[in-house]
């Protein structure tokens, strides 16, 4: 065999091994059009939201995530639920201490809390033993009296029976009446008989001057005017200040009209019974 033939065979052998490799590489290399074309899934599989990357799923907001939920994507639904749940951190609960009670408040006795100790104890003692309660002084009944004068003698009439006090007015005399009856007067359309209190009590008649007044009495519809020398003021008299009318001095005058005697500044004042005067 000549050298040329051997060389040719060797080159053919080398070329035969290189051509299949190049053909294989050429067959596997994509065409230029295929490189730019988008990837198309096989027609037998429908794309789902599971094909999205995880970072896209977790970076989606809550409003958008609610729209991305798909019925055929359980893994996406689980990812949305996990992303929506807030992170929970286990924090040890702080121990709750019981409220502190002040020893000062607990030690305050009930007597001091309610009021003065002496007053509270007295009230409790009176409630337990009403019979041993300190005796109370009964309120003395007092009445108001109108002080007046007939001459130099002081008198008084119970203010409850006095309707008013007026100045003297002209009187219309009446025939066939007692000497003490002076006549009648017109008091705002009402006929009022007027009597001289001095004569009626057995004394001197009342002289008419600037201080003379007519005291109008009224009780149960009965009305009477008394002419007196002067009207002084109103005073309060307690029961203890009124002496009973069974003294010798009062009995010599009358027992029916006088109710008693009261002393003001050591001066005796005869109390008259208005009911008897109106009878």
TrEMBL record:
**Keywords per UniProt:** Cytoplasm
One GO-annotated biological process of the protein: chemotaxis
UniProt xrefs under InterPro entries: CheW, CheW-like_dom_sf, CheW-lke_dom
Q: Where in the cell is it found?
A: Cytoplasm
| Pfam families in the cross-refs | CheW
Q: Which residues form the CheW-like domain?
A: 142-279
A cellular component annotation (GO) from this entry: cytosol
> What is the protein's given name?
Chemotaxis protein CheW
Say which species the protein is native to.
Stenotrophomonas tumulicola
């Amino acid at each position: 065999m000549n050298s040329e033939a051997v060389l040719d065979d060797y080159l053919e052998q080398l070329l035969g091994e290189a051509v299949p490799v190049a053909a294989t590489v050429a067959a596997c290399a994509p065409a230029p059009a295929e490189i730019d074309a988008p990837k198309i899934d096989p027609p037998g599989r429908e794309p789902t939201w599971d094909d999205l990357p995880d970072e896209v799923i977790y970076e989606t907001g809550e409003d958008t995530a609610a729209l991305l939920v798909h019925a055929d994507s359980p893994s996406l639904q689980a990812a949305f639920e996990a992303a929506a749940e807030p992170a929970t951190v286990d924090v040890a609960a702080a121990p709750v201490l019981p409220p502190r009670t002040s020893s000062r408040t607990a030690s305050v006795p009930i007597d001091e809390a309610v009021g003065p100790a002496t007053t509270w104890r007295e009230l409790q003692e009176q409630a337990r033993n009403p019979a041993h309660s300190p005796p109370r002084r009964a309120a003395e009944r007092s009445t108001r009296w109108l002080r007046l004068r007939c001459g130099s003698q002081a008198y008084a009439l119970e203010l409850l029976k006095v309707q008013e006090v007026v100045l003297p007015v002209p009187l219309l005399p009446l025939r066939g009446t007692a000497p003490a009856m002076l006549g009648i007067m017109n008091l705002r359309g009402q006929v009022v008989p007027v009597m001289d209190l001095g004569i009626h009590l057995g004394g001197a008649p009342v002289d008419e001057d600037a201080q003379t007044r007519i005291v109008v009495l009224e009780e149960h519809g009965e009305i009477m005017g008394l002419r007196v020398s002067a009207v002084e003021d109103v005073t309060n008299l307690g029961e203890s200040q009124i002496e009973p009318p069974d003294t010798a001095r009062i009995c010599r005058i009358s027992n029916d009209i006088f109710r008693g005697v009261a002393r003001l500044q050591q001066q005796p004042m005869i109390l008259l019974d208005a009911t008897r005067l109106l009878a």
